[in-house]
Design goal:
The structure holds 2 protein chains of 2 kinds.
Chain A (H helix, E strand, L loop, with lengths): L1 H47 L2 H5 L15 H32 L3 H13 L4 H16 L4 H25 L3 H9 L4 H29 L3 H4 L19 H9 L4 H39 L1
Helix pairs in contact in A: 1-11, 3-4, 3-6, 3-8, 5-6, 6-8, 7-8, 8-11, 10-11
Chain B lengths: L2 H58 L9 E3 L2 E2 L2 H32 L2 H14 L4 H26 L17 H25 L3 H9 L4 H30 L2 H6 L17 H8 L6 H37 L1
Helix pairs in contact in B: 1-10, 2-5, 2-7, 2-9, 3-5, 4-5, 5-7, 6-7, 7-10, 9-10
The chains are: A mainly alpha, B mainly alpha.
Chain lengths: 291, 321
């Protein structure tokens, strides 16, 4: 009987090995282009970087000496992201606290549902809506309007991250604190939040990093500018829009500038990601070690 | 301790607890207010899109969804963009789903230790690269490769006979956008699939192996059926991302507002239209039609994401039982 089944058995074993091979092929198929993305950004981008690149303004490609620098876009990106964080971090963290600690009711259900819907909002919609309200009211595209548009995306992300982090805090911690006669609010502020702090910070950093690379919401809200940053209430350059505009231009010099801006933007996002995730991993290891 | 000090400290406690209660209520109110802001954002988004879309809704009614003329003779129909969104997303999923699930299987069932941790980390990092970067890469590096290698290869193969691949290949076309979209959703689908594969209990796998199944048979017969709902929701979440994706598509698809089913032709999607034309026109009806496209895009994304969330909710309910 063992002999009868050998052929079939061998077929099954071969098939198992072939399929494992195919999953490796799948990984390689994905890694080659994704690796090519990173490699090109690093090689072309780093080649474009220099002190002048960081500290001068863009210039017309006709000038015969490259496309200039991206100082205004760096400053603009920082401003837009800071404005977006100013709106989205307080609202997102508080709403996350509400959902996890007080949200066992009708309002909580409605907010939870809305947060989930908004976290899948196509990013261009955020730009279109903020254009039709903020930009139309102010009469011009501004860094402020761009920050508002980005905050529409970041608020649900931060809310979900905060709620997830609070959800990980053991109920026993809350009960112990309440049993000592500590009020609900103080329990949340001094017991729950401190132990969820790492998770909240990680989630917030990831959301802010993601928003820093968003482009679509800024096209109609921030626009672009070749001039130095002129305050949060005027038209502003950002790295992401600069990459969009210069990559789609026909000038080789501007393509170089776009690669340089890309390495700055991706570097910023990847470093934030690595720091946030490492913090989180360390913290989890510590917590598991204690448990 | 004398009686007087005791009563003062009691009074202090009462005042203290009243103050605490006030604080508690204020804090709770503040968090509820943040929740209300989120509801408000949703209302404002829907109202802004709907109000601005009204003139177009009144002018074209339901015909807007299936007529193909865009900005010609005062006519506006969204069919080219709806088709463009569906075609590019469908092709992206077709290419990405097998690869993503293969990666998820490899990472959960075969790779272990340091290799797995590094790969998981890499996949999550790659998911953080902004879409404009994929656009830049697609435009300046990948597009010539597609022109010189991919398009001739398709034409030479039996696939070239399919009606979805025509004669003339433009540099910027639906195929290029779909390929880059596939690349962008792969980290998302594979990391969500991985999460549901990880949750398959060890005992289930061991039982399969004890029955004498090969590892691959355990995967197809035990692991994948167990994680099926999670994998499906991962695919739908990837679809939602592909539908809403704007920058890479805008930079690569060619932005031609014409209905086509030929992947070698330039096309346009709902989001690429908004990225390109929005704000460019003083024509009231044109503007309004753009807002209506935004409304349709919002609703499509809403439906797709809701389906994924419903499936995920059902899984977590089953898990808690």
């Amino acid at each position: 009987m063992a002999l009868e089944s050998t052929g079939r058995h061998r077929y099954r074993k071969v098939k198992a090995n072939v399929m494992v091979g195919l999953t490796v092929v799948a990984l390689v198929l994905a890694l080659i282009p994704l690796g090519a993305v990173l490699y090109l950004i690093a090689s072309k981008g780093l080649a474009a970087l220099s002190w002048d690149f960081l500290t001068t303004l863009p210039q017309a490609p006709m000038a015969g000496e490259g496309g200039g620098g991206v100082r205004n876009a760096i400053v603009g990106t920082v401003w837009v992201v800071v404005i977006a964080s100013g709106f989205s971090i307080p609202i997102g963290v508080l709403a996350g606290i509400y959902l996890n600690e007080f949200g066992d009711n009708r309002l909580g259900q409605a907010v939870r549902f809305t947060t989930e819907v908004l976290s899948g909002l196509p990013s261009i919609i955020a730009g279109v809506v903020v254009y039709s309200i903020v930009v139309v009211a102010m009469g011009d595209v501004t860094a402020f309007a761009g920050g508002v548009a980005l905050s529409l995306l970041a608020i649900p992300w931060i809310t979900v991250a905060t709620q997830d982090a609070l959800d990980l805090v053991p109920q026993a911690n809350r009960d112990a604190s309440l049993a000592l006669g500590v009020s609900r609010t103080e329990t949340i502020l001094f017991v729950v939040l401190p132990s969820a702090f790492g998770g909240v910070i990680t989630g917030t950093m990831l959301a802010v990093a993601r928003v820093a690379g968003e482009t679509a919401p800024l096209i109609w809200t921030v626009g672009f500018s070749k001039f130095a940053f002129h305050g949060p209430f005027s038209q502003t350059a950002t790295l992401s829009i600069l990459i969009y505009n210069y990559a789609t231009s026909p000038y080789e010099a501007w393509h170089q500038v776009a690669w340089g801006a890309a390495v700055l933007l991706v570097g910023l996002i990847l470093v934030t990601n690595v720091v946030a995730r490492t913090l989180w991993a360390l913290r989890r290891r510590k917590m598991e070690g204690r448990g | 301790m004398s009686g007087t000090t005791e009563s003062t400290s009691n009074r202090g406690l009462v005042a203290n607890s009243r103050r605490t209660r006030l604080w508690s209520r204020a804090f709770r109110g503040l968090t509820a207010l943040a929740g209300l802001v989120i509801l408000g954002i949703m209302v404002v988004i829907l109202a802004a899109l709907f109000v601005r879309a009204m003139p177009a809704i009144e002018a074209f009614g339901a015909n807007f969804l299936w007529t193909t003329k865009w900005n010609s003779g005062g006519q506006f129909g969204a069919a080219p963009f709806i088709a463009g969104t569906l075609l590019s997303s469908a092709m992206a999923l077709l290419l990405s789903v097998p690869v993503s699930i293969g990666i998820a299987i490899l990472l959960t069932q075969y790779a272990d230790g340091a290799i797995r941790e590094v790969l998981v980390f890499a996949v999550e990092l790659v998911a953080g690269i902004p879409s404009v970067i994929y656009g830049l890469w697609g435009l300046l590096f990948f597009s010539p490769i597609v022109d010189t290698y991919v398009v001739p290869a398709i034409n030479a193969s039996p696939l070239g006979a399919l009606p979805i691949f025509g004669e003339q290949a433009y540099s910027y076309n639906i195929l290029l956008a779909s390929l880059v979209l596939a690349l962008m959703v792969t980290p998302i689908i594979s990391s969500f699939s991985r999460e549901s594969l990880v949750r398959v209990p060890r005992e289930q796998r061991d039982a399969g192996i004890a029955l004498g199944l090969t590892r691959w048979e355990v995967i197809t017969g035990v692991v994948i059926p167990y994680a099926r709902a999670g994998i499906i929701s991962a695919i739908i979440l990837g679809l939602g991302r592909a539908i809403g994706e704007t920058m890479a598509v805008t930079m690569l698809i060619g932005n031609k507002p014409v209905l086509t089913f030929d992947f070698f032709e330039p096309g346009a999607t709902m989001s690429s239209l908004l990225a390109n034309e929005f704000n460019q026109s003083s024509n009231v009806l044109h503007n309004s039609a753009l807002f209506e496209v935004g409304l349709v895009l919002f609703l499509v994304a809403f439906v797709v994401n809701s389906i994924a969330r419903l499936i995920i909710q059902r899984i977590s309910h089953e898990g808690s039982r």
